[in-house]
Amino acid sequence: MSTETLEFQAEARQLLQLMVHSIYSNKDIFLRELISNASDALDKRRLAGLQDDRLRADDPHIRIEADKEARTLTVRDNGIGMTRDDVVGLIGTIARSGTAETLRRLKENKENKESAELIGQFGVGFYSVFMVADKVTLLTRKAGEETGTRWESDGDGTYTIETVEDAPEGTAVTVHLRPADEEDALHDYADEWKIREIVKRYSDFISFPIRLGDETLNSMKALWARPRSEVKDEEYHEFYRHVSHDWSDPLEIIQMRAEGTFEYEALLFLPSRAPHDLFQRDARHGIQLYVKRVFIMDDTRELLPSHLRFVKGVVDAADLSLNISREILQQDRHIQMIRRRLAKKVLSTIKDLMRNDVEKYRTFWREFGAAVKEGLLDAGEDHKAILDIASFASTEGEEPTSLADYVTRMKEGQDKIYFMAGESRAQIENSPHLEAFRAKGYEVLLLTDPVDEIWTESVREYDGHELRSVARGAVDLSEEDEVSEERTGAYAPLLTWLGETLDDVKDVRLTTRLTSSPACLVSDSEGLTPALERMYRAMGQEVPKVKRILELNPDHPLVSGLREAHERSADAPELTETAELLYGTALLAEGGDLTDPARFAKLLADRLARTV
Ligand SMILES: Nc1ncnc2c1ncn2[C@@H]1O[C@H](COP(=O)(O)OP(=O)(O)OP(=O)(O)O)[C@@H](O)[C@H]1O
């Protein structure tokens, strides 16, 4: 086949532009990325070789060749290689979700430091080579295939691709180096000394030999098998980058070793920020499984519950078979045991952070709290541990509070933990439901993650204290606050009439919940909340329209006035309109949507016209 010139996909082109103009100051890392890809390719080939003998590689390794004259640097592996379609699909496009959004933000921040961080989050991988290259040539042949592919690009909008007969199995990436420019931190990457230094720093733990001439540059020591005291943080960080594809440093390192009947070692990392696909179904999970130092699989979901899917790292189990499959893993009793132990260890590490390093804890919870709380929807094993490490915004102060701290601040006579769930802090804080709680000085937790609406349905207590929504059921702040029977009696005809007139409410009653608003809407203690109703609908589930209870504040002039008007003449037409306005106002006050805003606006305008 002749040489074809193809265009990079639009997003890939933008990312390349950013690389060519090199917004990332540490250019050395291009070599780390190439070596990391080579190592992944060797892992894949080893796995393929287990299925099919013919795919096995003799002497799997990575080789670096530098040519000072020609100013080229080549990274060669005898790994799995790529077909022509692979090259077009994997190198010519970026398939990751959220790409466009990340690029938009990157562009906006072109000059500032945040760019480097953003790009780190994104992980540009192979493209980072264009920070140092004028031109890149990639020659590859997929293990077991007859022909190879040659790909070449100078990083502008296009690349060339051709089929070749004489490529060795595996992949060789040849970087045509730009002239060194020390001022721009563009070092001489054809210099063997520099290569040695970079490999030692970033890729020492790679489990295949990285050769330069006759020399093997890396120690190949498995980091998780070395005692913590002997490993520098920097080495852990590099390893984290290799397993996570995240360019930033991890927030916390967790090392574990279990001896006895079932031995395993684990080296886990809490990232310092959430990946953009944290809430996408197909997001990568971060655990690699090894058996006796040999890589078995990526993305081992069986090793951690899904609410801890952001944890990255390695588990090396001593007693599993080398060709264990995912299907077997799912049923393996030992794997289930490891999963429980790892989950407990991760949660207890976060608890330690909460005590000993509040800053780190806060970062962690801000980034991952919403995911961790999903664990409250599973069968209860970790509920207590999750509630212990959770924190929530609250009417008391700006910083989030733990439940334990909330309990210590509970008022004399208060036995419940009160919360309100909603879309934003501002919306909840303005909601009339909070009025009586505020008047009494009771603290209310403000829950704003979508998952909060769901877990609070099933988790009903913490440490012996009921968790109670302030927008649900009747308030029972104290006995003396109950609406007197005498009053209820006087209001009975109005309440009955309102119940009959307003189709959208289930019941109408008086309340002590309100101090300044005339009315509010509450869910009864069993019914769905409006947010949950919306959520089920969004998921395509049929749910009946939920009706709520309209609660009235008998101390409000609008409500007492309405009672008098109703007494005078129960069938005056304005009365029905006032009822509608009252209901609409309650809905607006909590940030809800009117079913017929035009009608509401008209009624209101007519009324106002009469007052001016
Ligand atoms: N040496 C190689 N051998 C075989 N396949 C490779 C090689 N280098 C890259 N690839 C393929 O190209 C894909 C894209 O590589 P790239 O480095 O851009 O991203 P990545 O490694 O998947 O993730 P990240 O961007 O986070 O590093 C890889 O996932 C791999 O499938």
Automatic annotation (TrEMBL):
Predominant place of localization: cytoplasm
Keywords: ATP-binding, Chaperone, Cytoplasm, Nucleotide-binding, Stress response
InterPro entries assigned: HATPase_C_sf (IPR036890), HATPase_dom (IPR003594), Heat_shock_protein_90_CS (IPR019805), HSP90_C (IPR037196), Hsp90_fam (IPR001404), Hsp90_N (IPR020575), Ribosomal_Su5_D2-typ_SF (IPR020568)
Cytoplasm recorded as keyword: yes
Classification via Pfam families: HATPase_c_3, HSP90
Segments of this protein annotated with the region A: 1-326
Domain spans labelled Histidine kinase/HSP90-like ATPase: 26-181
NCBIfam families: PRK05218.1
Protein name in the entry: Chaperone protein HtpG
Species in which this protein is naturally found: Streptomyces pyxinicus
Phylogenetic placement of the source organism: Bacteria, Bacillati, Actinomycetota, Actinomycetes, Kitasatosporales
